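Contributing new records

If you add data, match the layout below exactly. Sequence lines come first and carry their own label; structure lines follow with theirs. Keep one chain per record. Anything else will be rejected by the validation script.
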Amino acid sequence: MNTTTNPSTTTTPTTTTRWTLDPGHSAVGFSVRHLMITNVRGEFEKFRGDVTYDAAHPEATRIETTIDVASLNTREAKRDADLRSPLFFDAEKHPEMTFVSKSTRSVGDAGLEVTGDLTIRGTTHEVTLSVRDINAAQDMRQNSRIGATAEAKIKRSDFGMTWNKALETGGVVVGDVVTITLELSLVKVP
């Protein structure tokens, strides 16, 4: 049992429930502008995470996730190799990226803003995930599940990924802003 302090200085006991990420029913994706004309999408195929969450006390939410950088897939082998190289993720020296939440606040009736530390290539910056479409259900095996969609935007240059090339027509090959999109299914830990 955790206790949290609300602004009126009273202490309210909260019960948080542990949930684990179900990689078979979740997706960790990203997109970035390419040649200034389109977005290229990719995803990470290996990841894990734990969440403590109680719908009655969303401010007590805690998230810890780890993503295997080498598991990235953009459906083009040469591009994937470039992204794993020292020019971008440097997967050999930095095989994992992590997100650890620090604070959560409710936004409207069905959303959360979760702020935490995102570490990529050994560099950590604070990032806020916009979480929406939080739903609960029981699966066919009677496991309790929650699902949600989350999104954040980061600058890859903030994490040391600065490679680029100017285009003759203006602009650059790879945009700096990366959109991270998460489709999450979590199973209640007994």
